[in-house]
Amino acid sequence: MKPLTTSRRLLLPTVSLALLLGACIQSTVREESPAASPLPPLDQGEEPYAAVAERVLPSVVNVTTNVYQASPTGQPEQGKGVGTGFIVRANGVVVTNCHVVQGASRITVSTSEDEPTRYDARVIGGDCEHDLAVLKLDAEGLTALAVGASADLRLGQQVVAIGYALALEGGPSVTTGIVSSLDRTIRVPDPQCTVCPNGVRTYSEVIQTDAAINHGNSGGPLVDMEGRVVGINSAGSENAENIGFAISIDSAKTAIDAAISDPLQATAYLGVSTRDVTADLAFQLGLPVDHGAYVLATLTNGPAAAAGIREGDVIVEVDGETIEAAADLGRVLDALKPGDEVDVQVIGSDGEERTISVELGTKPLPTEFLEP
Q1: Residue finishing a domain among 261, 296, 325
Q2: How confident is the model at residue 334 (pLDDT cuts 50, 70, 90)?
Q3: What residue numbers bound the domain in which 293 lies?
Q4: Is the dihedral of CA 142, 146, 150, 156 positive or negative?
Q5: What is the CATH number of the domain that holds 193?
Q6: One of 59, 99, 130, 251 is an active-site residue; which one?
Q7: Which end of the chain is more exposed for a tag (fewer CB within 10 A), N or C?
Q8: Which residue did the predictor score with more confidence, 20 or 94?
């Protein structure tokens, strides 16, 4: 069998990962699923695909992430990822793939209008082993996508896949096809998934389609001809045409509902990457102190950077609490809330002491919390 890839977020510069499936495709038993969301009949006219796209596009969003990666010298450098999601609640609940937001230091969601609205997003739940993440935006009045029932799909039924393929400008791409197969289970190695047993991610109750699913489509909706989401675009063949896979919406409903009813709570963050200041590090770098949290990097436009904390600064105190090491900084932040203002005392590499007022931001939760 030819190698497949998850329709991974598109990293700039692009980092692709071939995921070998081998003989790991097998049938599974379909379970009962809730009824599809009621929708008025769609007047498809002579252009049925255009009618479906018109109904669905307001609910499709672009998901971009800031991701710290190791440079060739071992120092952290910031990259950017691009994927797709879709709105399932008008108050800003968005579904996407876990691998789209995996390892992100910041998540931004943009609507699909000609002049998109952008929101900061955070992870509130999901199931990373099965490649599902649920995000929350601070928004109201959004257009939620109607949820269908993948159990009602039939072989040969027409479907439409929508997503931000290849991170191209100009809005989402629309591709069409049929349901080629149902109830697949696909196991693919993904060493970046820290919660996947033995580094293998499992896609259960998967829909196979010949609708094109490309890089950047990750997390976008697969919909029926009434515009109801029946799957979450996740994987496509790297070398073969007309083979794409989507997680069935029925298999995702439990995790989505759990995230909505019992969301993980927002925590405060400063937007810095730090390490312990030791006597050896102080000697190597010529630092004026031998304790504190050394700032390796700041998140672009993050709270620390916006307030004036710079790479190479040493954080020695936050709101009167002494910072002896990086762990102390985490402990102090854990007791604070997003929106709190704190006084951060830093010492620059030139020995200058500065006290900086910082309004703490909301930390996008890491994907490790999604371990079953």
Answers
A1: 261
A2: confident
A3: 267-364
A4: negative
A5: 2.40.10.120
A6: 99
A7: C
A8: 94
User: Does residue 188 contact residue 20 with C-beta atoms inside 8 Å?
Assistant: yes
Report the percent of the chain where pLDDT is more than 90.
Answer: 45
CA neighbor of 324 nearest in space, from 261, 257, 278: 278
User: What per-residue string of b and e applies to 180-197 under the rule 16 or more CB within 10 Å gives b?
Assistant: bebbbebbbbbeebebbe
Peptide bond into 338 cis (omega under 30): no
Asked which of 261, 290, 307 is the last residue of a domain, the reply is 261
Same-domain check for residues 126 and 171: yes
Residue 99 annotated as catalytic: yes
Looking at residue 297, the DSSP 8-state letter turns out to be E
Assess whether 195 and 60 both reside in one domain.
yes
Catalytic option among 59, 105, 130, 131: 131
Q: Which two tokens stand for residue 173?
A: 């791409």
Number of domains the chain contains? 2
Question: What's at 367, amino acid-wise?
Answer: T
At 103, the pLDDT band (50, 70, 90 cuts) reads: confident
Judgement on whether residues 156 and 59 belong to the same structural domain of the protein:
yes
Which residue among 218, 234, 248, 273 is the active-site one?
218
The DSSP 8-state label assigned to residue 364 in this structure reads P
pLDDT at 74: 59
pLDDT in tens, 25-57: 222 323 333 344 567 776 666 789 999 999 999
Taking each continuous run of H as one helix and of E as one strand, the counts in the chain are 6, 22
Give the chain's mean pLDDT: 81
Q: Which of 48-52, 58-62, 83-87, 110-114 has the lowest mean pLDDT?
A: 110-114
Q: Is 326 found in the same domain as 195?
A: no
- Give the whole-angstrom CA distance, residue 131 versus residue 122: 16
CA–CA gap between residue 314 and residue 293 (Å, rounded): 5
H/E/C letters for each residue in 31-94?
CCCCCCCCCCCCCCCCCHHHHHHHHHHHHEEEEEEEEEEECCCCCEEEEEEEEEEEEEECCCEE
